[in-house]
Amino acid sequence: MSEIDPAVAQSSTDDDQPGVTDSSRQERRDYLKFFGAQSISVLSDEFGKLAVPLVAVLVLSADEGSIGLIEFAQTLPYLLVTLPAGVLVA
Asked: Cα–Cα distances in Å, from 17 out to 79, 83, 90?
């Protein structure tokens, strides 16, 4: 059987890579924290968009018109905030 060279078997770390500084490691860590938090936030928003109408149908026996109003009510805050913000930015 052939033996594995310990230098090859060792995984590459940031310490072995030239040009990787402590600040770049911190930036990468900060980005990963931000990306993870944003992913959880978007996932929970989408879950809420699915769960609210589903609960309305299963628990409250809501009809199609009520579901439409619920969907509109969920979209309304985005319309009320983003449209004026777009005017202020432009």
From this structure: 48, 47, 44
User: Tens place of pLDDT for every residue, the chain, 90 residues?
Assistant: 556 655 555 555 555 666 678 888 888 999 999 999 999 999 998 998 899 999 999 998 999 999 999 999 988 988 899 988 988 887
3-state secondary structure of 17: coil
Q: What is the DSSP letter of 11?
A: P
Question: What does DSSP assign to residue 16?
Answer: G
H helices of the chain, in order, are 6-9, 22-58, 64-89
Q: Are 66 and 44 in contact (CB under 8 A)?
A: no
| Region of 58 on the Ramachandran plot (φ > 0 left; ψ -120 to 50 alpha; else beta) | alpha
